[in-house]
Amino acid sequence: MKALSIRQPWAWLIVNGYKDIENRSWALKGGLPRRVYVHASQTWAILSKDTIVSVAERLYIRVDIAEDWLVNQLRPQCRGALIGEVDIVARVTESDSQWFEGPYGYVLANPVSYETPIPYKGSLGFFEVTLRQRLRAAFGAGTGISGRRSDETLLDRLVACWAGSL
After folding, report:
1. What string of DSSP letters covers 67-102?
2. What is the DSSP letter of 124?
């Protein structure tokens, strides 16, 4: 399944159902991936005062609350991880969505936020996340997948077991 790396706080807003469109300066060639992982990039979006005011208006909250939430509460949140999934249902160049800024927008639906983010190194644009990579990311964070041959055998068994049940 493909993933799309998105800067925080936008990634959090997407997987929690607040942001219904993802803006890009480029159009994906070919067909759209239907379901994608949302990857919170390592880089935090630059939030000007105007951006904070805009987010506050879109979420119907006071500016001081939005600023505290974006700067003090959300900023320390997970970056460099798969944090959820969402369906991409269309690519548009115009939209009534309050989040649309263009020139291209990917319309989003059915977001899911993971209770526990999966640390994962992202990439620009859409990138492929394989089952093996997800297992390595999930189990490599302190649970024994260290790159040793015995760990690789365990990883091979997990992949074979899970792939057989899909």
Report:
1. HHIIIIIITTS--SEEEEEEEEEEEES----TT--S
2. S
Q: Region 43-66: what's the mean pLDDT? A: 84
Write the single-letter amino acid at 105: G
DSSP per-residue string spanning 21-57: EEEESSPPSSPPPSEEEEEEEEEEPP--HHHHHHHHH
The enclosing H or E element of 117 equals strand 104-119
pLDDT, tens digit (0-9, with 9 covering 90-100), for 27-39: 877 777 789 999 9
Strand partners, 48: none
Q: Which residue segments constitute the domains of the chain, with CATH numbers given? A: 2-129 (2.30.130.30), 131-166 (no CATH)
pLDDT of residue 104: 94
pLDDT in tens, 74-120: 655 678 889 999 999 999 999 999 999 989 999 999 999 988 888 88
Instruction: Please state, in angstroms and rounded to a whole number, the distance separating the CA atoms of residues 13 and 149.
Output: 40
Helix (H) or strand (E) holding 118: strand 104-119
Terminal C-alpha separation, the chain: 13
